[in-house]
Amino acid sequence: MSSGDLVADRRFDFARDLQLKGDLAAAADLLLQATDLAPGFASAWFTLGDIREQLGERDEAIAAFRKAQTTDPDDRHGAGLRLMLLGAEKLSGMPPAYVRSLFDQYAPKFESALVHDLGYRGPALLFKAVLAARAAVRKPAFFKRAIDLGCGTGLAARAFATEVDRFIGIDLSPRMIERARATGLYAELELAEMVQGLGSRPDASADLILAADAMVYLSDLSPLLREAARVLAPGGLLAFTVETHGGEGVILGKGLRYAHGGAYVRSSIAAAGLTLSRLDDLSARNEDSAPVPGLVAVAAKA
Ligand SMILES: C[S@@+](CC[C@H](N)C(=O)[O-])C[C@H]1O[C@@H](n2cnc3c(N)ncnc32)[C@H](O)[C@@H]1O
After folding, report:
1. CA within 20 to 30 Å of 75's CA: 27, 61, 143, 301, which one?
2. Residue 162 pLDDT > 90, yes or no?
3. Cα–ligand 1 centroid distance for 194 (angstroms)
């Protein structure tokens, strides 16, 4: 993001070059000059925080990330998340403006990066789990009305295309929604934060709700699970993937996605009034050539 000051912007560009070349001290120096010229320059503060962290200067990194937050209250860079990882702030939700800007930038290369480079398999895992949950209660896996939360480019709708009559997609990234629209798989697409988007849907108006690799961007799952329980028709299913960890509760991972413990997922589903049909230890993607620990959940509305 530009500071509005040409000289400060140039200092910032040089600093980024130096950072990439590994000259962190010189980059930090240039960023300080840029922030002297333009004290409200959030990108420079954020990059300075990043460099201070790389240099092992924790207190200075925290101070710079805090500046990035105050100079951009929407927090498009995700400085708040970096403060959580540094232990300087307690765990809280992800700024919607950060998620939007992340996925707007990611949209053109999303499928090649995720599917080919990271072996992404979330939609296929959900499909198998939903078929198995339906087979277990001897019901056909056919759904009239489905909602795809955090629909992205439409990979989940593609996986379920033959089993669903009418798909609604909800996502907060306009660029991802554009790509989902181009698939022609959705009867309706809504640009919204997923809990709010689901919250505006009528009671008992969906037979299937999917969230493939989307709940990893929510720390507290309870508000979404409560809305899902309300929006599902009796007998309807909610199926989702999360990343997980061996401990209790919810943590923020180094990749800036939340990981939800198995016990947390079980108790949140029960507290929302849904019945867990399946909870399988399955990984939806790889990182550093290894599967990221994950869970695939299917919950039913009685
Ligand atoms: C990793 S992508 C997964 C996309 C798709 N479900 C798939 O399986 O390919 C995550 C998507 O969730 C969206 N997203 C993340 N947090 C969201 C939120 N709170 N509300 C709405 N969409 C969200 C992002 O914009 C992105 O398109």
Report:
1. 27
2. yes
3. 9
Q: Cα of 9 to ligand 1 centre, how many Å?
A: 31
Amino acid identity of 210? L
Query: What three-state secondary structure class fits 112?
Result: helix
Instruction: Give this prediction's pTM.
Output: 0.96
Which residue's CA is the nearest one to ligand 1's atom 8? 212
The answer to whether the beta carbons of residues 263 and 234 sit under 8 Å apart is no
Work out which ligand 1 atom sits closest to the CA atom of 176: 27
Cα–ligand 1 centroid distance for 235 (angstroms): 25
| Closest by CA position to 285, among listed 201, 225, 216, 198 | 216
CB-ligand 1 contact for 274 (6 Å cutoff): no
**Model confidence pLDDT, tens digit, residues 17-38:** 999 999 999 999 999 999 999 9
Q: Among candidates 68, 55, 241, which has minimal Cα distance to 148? A: 241
Of 119, 64, 83, the closest CA to residue 290 belongs to 119
Residue of 124, 182, 135 lying closest to 154 (CA atoms): 182
Q: pLDDT tens across 206-229, in order?
A: 999 999 999 999 999 999 999 999
Q: CA 241 → CA 6, 63, 165, 174, 282, distances in Å?
A: 45, 35, 22, 23, 9
What is the whole-number distance in angstroms between the Cα of residue 38 and the centre of ligand 1? 34
264 CB less than 6 Å from ligand 1?
Answer: no
Question: Is the CB of residue 208 below 6 angstroms from any atom belonging to ligand 1?
Answer: no
